[in-house]
Amino acid sequence: MSRVRAERLVVAITGASGAPYAKRLLDVLRRMREAGDGPEVAVVLSPTAPEVWALECGGDVRAAVEPFPVWGGRDYKAPFASGSAGWDAMVVIPCSMSTVARIAHGTSDSLLTRAADVIIKEKRNLVIVPRETPLSAIHLENLLKLANLGVTVAPAMPSFYAQPTSVEAVLDTVVARVLDHLGLPNDLMRRWGTPAG
Ligand SMILES: Cc1cc2nc3c(=O)[nH]c(=O)nc-3n(C[C@H](O)[C@H](O)[C@H](O)COP(=O)(O)O)c2cc1C
User: Fold this and answer.
1) Whole-model pTM?
2) Ligand 1 centroid to 17 CA: how many Å?
3) How many whole angstroms from 20 Cα to the centroid of ligand 1?
4) Terminal-residue alpha carbon distance, the chain
5) In angstroms, what is the span from residue 18 Cα to ligand 1's centroid?
6) 64-86 per-position pLDDT tens digit
7) Which domains does the chain possess?
8) Which of 13, 52, 140 for mutating ligand 1's site (highest number of atoms within 8 Å of CB)?
9) Distances in Å between the alpha carbon of 32 and those of 109, 121, 149, 152?
């Protein structure tokens, strides 16, 4: 992968459906860390994220993301709330349309939206994984605005050409592309053009 590899990564989770994508991503990042090869990771949650996580994954999100630190939603003392700290990448997974709108309008009204604002202003790597269907013109305009700012819009849209046979393998078709755009090597899914195992 030719993309710059994320060294210090903010993983933000919102109240859109799709908490299992975040869980899978964090499981992979934890494995990388255990192998001594992962980025530094910090987690930030929207107010609705714990409720949707409990519904879709079961249990408490804060316990599930250990050992990664979870920052409070208004804790602007977090290092990634300032551009000078040098955090180089952020992913919002899943990303609600509410958070898409707030990031697109630079509200910086929570640690999550402030962190995204910082990544955009510093011209670093922001990947969002929006989830909604159907998409209204409001959603599309906000997403276009972010894409034009250099944000990678990687929707929670699984693919099936690798013939996934489990829910986890379906999740991996999205998570693999997210890792690709964070510059993090992975073999989560069979890539197009490679032989079926
Ligand atoms: C179970 C559940 C599923 C939801 N799924 C979505 C979704 O897929 N996309 C979305 O934009 N909002 C979804 N919502 C609504 C958001 O949670 C709501 O708009 C909230 O204000 C988002 O705030 P946040 O972005 O700060 O998490 C869902 C809410 C619940 C309770």
Assistant:
1) 0.97
2) 6
3) 14
4) 22
5) 10
6) 999 999 998 899 999 999 999 99
7) 8-181 (3.40.50.1950)
8) 52
9) 32, 29, 30, 23
Q: How far is the CA of 99 from the centre of ligand 1 (A)?
A: 9
> By CB neighbour count within 10 A (0-12 exposed, 13-18 middle, 19+ buried), where does 49 fall?
buried
26, 43 contact by CB (below 8 A):
yes
Beta strands in 115-189 (DSSP E): 125-130, 152-153
Which of the listed residues 14, 21, 48, 102 should we mutate to test ligand 1's pocket, taking the one with most ligand atoms within 8 A of CB? 48
**Predicted local distance difference test score (pLDDT) of residue 173:** 96
Residues of the chain with pLDDT under 50: none
Q: CB–CB of 41/74 below 8 Å?
A: no
Q: Is 46 in the pocket of ligand 1 (CB under 6 A)?
A: yes
How far is 35 from 28, CA to CA, in rounded Å? Answer: 11
Of 59, 46, 169, the C-alpha closest to 116 is: 46
3-state helix, strand, coil in the chain (%, to 5): 40, 15, 45
